[in-house]
Every structure is written in C-alpha cells, then in structure tokens.
Amino acid sequence: MPESSAFSLRGKVVVQFGGTGLLGRALVSALGAANATLVVASRNRSSLAALAAAEKKARRKVEVDEVDIGSEASLHALRDRVLARHGRVDGIVFNAVSRPMGKFSDDLAAWRASMETNATGFFATVRAFGDAMAAQGSGSIVNIASMQGMVGMNPWLYEGTAMTAAPDYFFHKGGMINLTRYLASHYGSKGVRVNVVSPGGIFNPEKPQAPAFRERYGKMTMLGRMAEAHEVGGAVVFLLSDASAYITGINLPVDGGYTAK
C-alpha cells in the first residue's frame, strides 16, 4: 500500500514509554510500520533487549533505552541522550503503567506506590519532553488512558470470576484524561499538541480473560467483542502524524462503542 505522507511518521523521532507489555508491543509495531524513528524506554533491560530482537526480526528498527520515570534526573538524562543522538523529539507516547493495587481492600501502601508511576511519573515525563518540544516549537504528545477513566466500575462484568477492578486505575486514567486537556492548553501556544487515547478492554491471548467476562463485555460494546491490541495503534499513529495537525486536547475512545452505547 502506498505511504500517505500526512499519515506517515517518517522523519519523526518518537519516544515511547512502556513498550514491552501486550499493548506496548503492538504500539511499537504500529509506529515502526509508520516509519517513525522510534526509541522505546523502560527500566526493564531484559524486556527491552527481547523487544529490540523481535522488531529486528520483523525488519523494523527500534532503539531501546533505560529510564526510571520515577526519577526526574533519569528522565532528563534520557531526554538529553535522545536530543544528542537525533537533534530533536517530535513525539512521545506515554503508555507506562504500574498495577500494584489488586483490590479495594489493599493496604494504602499499594495506592501510594501506584501514584509514583501513574501520577507523578506521568507528569514528570510529559513535562520533561513537552518542554523540549516547546523549545523547538512543535511536537505531539499521545497519552494512553482507558475507557475506565470515563465510566464507573460495572460489577456485573466480574461476577463469578476471579477478576477484579482496582480503584487506583480508574482514578489515574480519569486524571490522565483531564490533565491532557490542561497540558494541551499549556503547550498549545508553543506548537505542541497533547491528546489522549482511551482503549476499551483488550483481549489478552497470553493470559485470556475469563470466558464469562469476555461474553458480558462483548454485550456492552457495539461491535460485540473485546479489542485486539493491534487495533489501538492506528489512533496513536494518527495523533502523532501531520494528519492531525489541528487536533489537540481530545480524548479518543477506541472501545468498540462501549462508552457510546
């Protein structure tokens, strides 16, 4: 298929945070297919090495680099290394997430630990790289939230299964959606766009969700099923590309119609 220049990421330097999980790997593949110059950052060295090997096998090039998003110094060091290698940063994808909290009754220490990555780390990352893009007068930030930042918890989905819905995830993803609007306003005059993508439930072939959950979830959507991880990448590529040059501050649900039903 011929490459459309407006939707292409060729020549754009993109840093993705959180690239070794199910959705992260799918986003890496999507950005690679769109010809981004891609740097995937994580603190897990072995997972990064495996990711780089898999992408090389698929004939897609990806750079990997270590970072601790809980450390502002580590984020600044990563930013400076990317700028030294490439001279600019055209976009970031914030897909990093920590899930220390499993249920409502967990000790508050789990809630506090969740904050470190999902709130403080998120803000520190966007500020470090957003300021760099603002200095050059252009850029695009795409944050990966969840439709669970848009709706309340539905206990019916989980009845009779071992699955639960942790409260911190709803809190962080709802906050991410609204902070994206703030950031879009803050950076807009400097030519930096900030948007958020909110995926719905994604089927995990590596650890399949309970059949009862999948059946009920499908009934809540307009398309009658959970998402596949690769189906989220197009929205992210679009928001990083020049095809969305006049779009900022939006929340784009990729949820099969769940939140519109």
What does this structure look like?
There is one protein chain. The chain is an alpha/beta fold and 261 residues long. It contains 7 helices and 7 strands, in the order E-H-E-H-E-H-E-H-E-H-E-H-H-E. Strand 1 (13-17), helix 1 (22-33) and strand 2 form a beta-alpha-beta unit. The two termini are 34 Å apart. The model has no long low-confidence stretch (mean pLDDT 95).
Quick structural summary:
With 261 residues, the chain is of the alpha/beta class. 42% of the residues lie in helices and 14% in strands. It contains seven helices and seven strands.
Strand-helix topology:
Blueprint: E1 13-17, H1 22-33, E2 37-42, H2 45-57, E3 63-66, H3 72-86, E4 91-94, H4 108-136, E5 139-144, H5 167-188, E6 192-199, H6 211-220, H7 233-240, E7 251-254
Parallel strand pairs: 1-2, 1-4, 2-3, 4-5, 5-6, 6-7
Helix pairs in contact: 1-7, 3-4, 4-5
